[in-house]
Amino acid sequence: MKNTLKRIALLLIVAVLLGGSFFLYSLSKTVRIPILMYHNIDETSDGNDTITASLFEEQMKAISENGYTALTFSDLQAYVDGKTDLPDKPVVITFDDGYLSTYVYAYPILSRYGLNGTVFTIGTMVGTTTYKDTGLWTYPCFTYEQGREMFESGVIDVQSHSYDMHQWAPNETGDVIRENALKLNDESDEEYLLALQNDFLLSKQLIEENVGNQVFVLSYPHGLYSKISEEVSIDYGFSVTVTTTHGSNRLKQGDPSCLRVLNRYAITDSITPDKLLNLLSRFW
After folding, report:
1. Cα separations in angstroms, 60 against 110, 173, 258
2. Which of 86, 63, 89 is nearest to 74 (CA)?
3. Are 249 and 263 in contact (CB under 8 A)?
4. Within this chain, do residues 21 and 50 fall inside the same structural domain, yes or no?
């Protein structure tokens, strides 16, 4: 009897120790990831979303020289899927809208410093220099051919910023203007669902056919989303979605939900290299 009780007690102790080890292992497989968000790059700044090429290069140089590794979303997906570990000081660099400046400035600078980036294109704007329908001026956007060159170089991945849900009212024509992926006031649930399905699918198909990469990341226009948009994006193969909400992210292996509605840090011309390094240093 005493021997039986001893064996039971020993088994309980082993179970507790194993459980504790598993808990600690689970914690060790959780990592915080900062995602940087850029828009346009030019020779001069506009004090808003456009930063100078010289500042961008200084920021990238600081990231590279201080031991940070710029990851792609494929790296994050592989980590969550349990297929790989991440380096000690990871960061993700993103560009919204698909401006030509990503090709002209960001692409060679990232390449020079051994960094990777992800650009989110607006389907209706690819390869244009004027706004759709109205012909009004807009920042030039790179072509699919240029997107393919960046992707095939291994430096920049091309993902979706929707096909036509990133509209701007002053330049739009017609009665229906959709500035983001939210439901319109007079739109039925069925109409909203169909609009999301058509838009997300077309954006994904055009990038995959013309650039050649797998499209699985969606950057919500203006960072706005809904429960329905999240459901549709999952149905159409977007395992990762990002917003414009300021903040970091905590990724956990085995938990695909941690790749939904990721936060990002907007980088403007007020962010010096030292300020950027100070921001990133909070995570390690």
Report:
1. 7, 39, 27
2. 86
3. yes
4. no
Q: Taking the chain, what is the end-to-end CA distance rounded to the nearest angstrom?
A: 53
Pairing state between β 265-266 and 117-121: unpaired
**DSSP for residue 137:** B
Q: What is the pTM of this model?
A: 0.90
Rounded to an integer, what distance in angstroms lies between the CA atom of residue 119 and that of residue 39? 9
- How many angstroms separate the CA atoms of 2 and 194, rounded? 69
Buried b (16+ CB within 10 A) or exposed e, 140-173: bbbbbebbbbbbeeebbbbbbbbbbbbbeeebbe
Helix axes 273-281, 53-65, angle to 10 degrees: 40
* 108-155 pLDDT, tens digit each: 999 999 999 999 999 999 999 999 888 999 999 999 999 999 999 999
Domain that holds residue 12: 1-32
Tell me how many domains the chain contains: 2
Same domain for 232 and 119, yes or no, is yes
Q: Where are the alpha helices (DSSP H) in the chain?
A: 2-28, 53-65, 73-80, 100-101, 107-112, 144-153, 189-210, 227-235, 273-281
| Length in residues, the chain | 284
What is the C-alpha separation between 60 and 82, in angstroms, rounded? 29
